């Protein structure tokens, strides 16, 4: 037996996506092209991040405030632009909606044929940007519904079941891409020397329970009592451990692999919490459910929430089935 690992090296993301697409019929080529472009965006962002500390003008703030009221970083802008650039002249995506743009960005030359919308958070965990820590990008693909004649994107205001693909790119010690097109969850690691994402694990399943709870406990006194009760339970019960990295792509990746629960509850000042439904919570919910986990708002499934506006926020409890159910049981007790 030769031990080149050639078989593994050749299991690239693009080959894998093609193999997954049997049930998509005429759309298969489109989806494979979409995933390839998302991968290219991930490579461009990863390349810039890996040299950020060596180059002038990459790190720090732009001085602007985005639609969320958050200070914008140069990497947020760059990464937002990367996704737009890779989808220009693709003929695939007529519009992109992101955390950094108040309204969707239209690519008019794609619109006659581009049947998809890309929803994305270009840099998840922005506070980690300037200190060389884990970051992510989150994405989801939806079919264009209707004509959106007035450009208000009303047709995007639908539940998470309308997503046809979702995933994230994790910028850690290595760059990983994790995706689902409704047929399991699969992870890939970027081999920088090949410029290819190579299969790491196919059909990932999240454990039904895990030791990790991941939440910003600095908000403890701003939560509803039910969340305080849950945290008190975790503190006095053996077998729990806290992990919170400031970028939920990293925290949720850990939970996908090891089990546990990530929470971002509502606070007094922000009853809906911080995280946005369409390009943060819903894509991650799609992915985690595909891996056998759950995602809840505390009163229902994330996947069932129909937003009223593009940048709508929602509380998020996501991870292993049993751990999500345990948090919910504390909410029910207080109700
Ligand atoms: P961002 O996309 O603007 O970076 O916000 C999302 C991030 C999550 O990745 C992370 O879990 C959370 O915000 C951290 O917020 P906080 O500092 O309030 O705990
Ligand atoms: Mg984000």
UniProtKB/TrEMBL annotation:
It is an enzyme of class 3 (hydrolase). It catalyses: beta-D-fructose 1,6-bisphosphate + H2O = beta-D-fructose 6-phosphate + phosphate. Binds 2 magnesium ions per subunit. GO terms for cellular component: cytosol. It comes from the Bacteria. Residues 206-330 form the Fructose-1-6-bisphosphatase class 1 C-terminal domain. Keywords: Calvin cycle, Carbohydrate metabolism, Cytoplasm, Hydrolase, Magnesium, Metal-binding. It is found in: Cytoplasm. Mg(2+) 1 binds at residues 99, 121, 123. GO terms for biological process: fructose 1,6-bisphosphate metabolic process; fructose 6-phosphate metabolic process; fructose metabolic process; gluconeogenesis; reductive pentose-phosphate cycle; sucrose biosynthetic process. Pfam families: FBPase (PF00316), FBPase_C (PF18913). Its cofactor is Mg(2+). Residues 12-202 form the Fructose-1-6-bisphosphatase class I N-terminal domain. Substrate binds at residues 124-127, 216, 244, 274. Gene3D superfamilies: 3.40.190.80, Fructose-1,6-Bisphosphatase, subunit A, domain 1. SUPFAM superfamilies: Carbohydrate phosphatase. Pathway: Carbohydrate biosynthesis; Calvin cycle. Belongs to the FBPase class 1 family. Homotetramer. This is Fructose-1,6-bisphosphatase class 1. It comes from Aliterella atlantica CENA595.
